[in-house]
User: Which sequence fits this backbone?
């Protein structure tokens, strides 16, 4: 390190030492700070250290002194508990690749002291989730947010996988052109809610199934359609984000399912008591095989009452599945 370092440069080195090598349990006295500075090639006098600490405090850094023990940086941009939550969220996100996850956790670790950073090397085990190997998702999400902020359309190719795990592009590889309005995270997948001018409808697309996503010069369309929708309820009504017709469905539910209905449809779900053991629930859902599968998973605790055609569809789904096992 240059011996001709400015006072401002020395101040930054001192701040870095306080940030990386001190916390409430690890304090440094002025003589110890002088040695740390010297190890980095910075020569300072005792008086200059006191003056530099006072300058840092004046500019809002919470450098505290414990008499007889030394100085430490107390308040940080993130508290340790907050960093642990962020690290857990990164590790639990299957759309982030292992490599990108490690990079993000390393950056988060720099917000803590070296001693605290060791406690951020956590392992969160998430049942039934495999990590993505596709870093394209990470950048596609960022590009979508940029397009929304810029009021611009996007285009992309959309694909599925075949039984040999090969990408099969829809529309023979032709580009989808849509106006992006929102991103929804459901079952740890990101879905784009966008307006399709060709069908004049809001549609959703899985972001990890997009390829060659680009922002276009054309301004977005369909703002009226999006404003008429209820984005906060969109994911609640689309089970597994599968398409179908939206219906108002009446269910008869066992009393022990009340919390399940609230978790799924929100605090304002209509629930009408029928007796001590049952209640009726009126919900708006997109009727799909995934909705029927959700009902079946409630172990007979819920029954479709209305409308009749949805009740008939439920019975048909059950009969078809039963036939497969006979």
Assistant:
């Amino acid at each position: 390190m240059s011996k001709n370092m400015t006072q401002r440069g020395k101040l930054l080195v001192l701040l870095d030492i306080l940030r990386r090598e001190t916390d409430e349990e690890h304090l440094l006295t002025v003589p110890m700070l002088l040695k740390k500075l010297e190890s980095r090639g910075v020569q300072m006098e005792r008086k200059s250290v006191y003056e530099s600490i006072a300058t840092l405090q004046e500019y809002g850094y919470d450098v505290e002194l414990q008499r007889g023990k030394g100085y430490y940086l107390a308040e940080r941009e993130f508290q340790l508990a907050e960093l642990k939550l962020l690290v857990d969220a990164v590790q639990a996100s299957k759309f982030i690749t292992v490599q990108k996850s490690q990079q993000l956790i390393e950056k988060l670790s720099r917000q803590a002291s070296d001693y605290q950073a060791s406690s951020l090397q956590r392992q969160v085990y998430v049942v039934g989730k495999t990590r993505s190997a596709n870093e394209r998702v990470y950048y596609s999400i960022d590009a979508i947010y940029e397009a929304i902020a810029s009021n611009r359309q996007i285009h992309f190719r959309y694909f599925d996988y075949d039984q040999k795990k090969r990408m099969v592009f829809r529309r023979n590889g032709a580009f989808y052109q849509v106006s992006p309005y929102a991103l929804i995270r459901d079952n740890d997948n990101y879905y784009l809610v966008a307006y399709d001018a060709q069908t004049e409808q809001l549609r959703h697309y899985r972001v990890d199934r997009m390829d060659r996503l680009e922002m276009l010069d054309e301004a977005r369309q369909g703002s009226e359609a999006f404003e008429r929708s209820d984005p906060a309820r969109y994911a609640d009504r689309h089970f597994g984000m599968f398409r179908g017709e939206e219906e108002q469905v009446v269910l008869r539910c066992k009393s022990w399912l009340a919390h399940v209905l609230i978790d799924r449809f929100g605090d304002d779900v209509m629930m009408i008591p029928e007796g001590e053991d049952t209640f009726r629930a009126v919900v708006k859902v997109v009727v799909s095989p995934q909705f029927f599968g959700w009902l079946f998973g409630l172990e007979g605790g819920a029954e479709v009452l209305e409308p009749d055609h949805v009740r008939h569809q439920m019975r048909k789904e059950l009969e078809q599945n039963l036939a497969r096992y006979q």
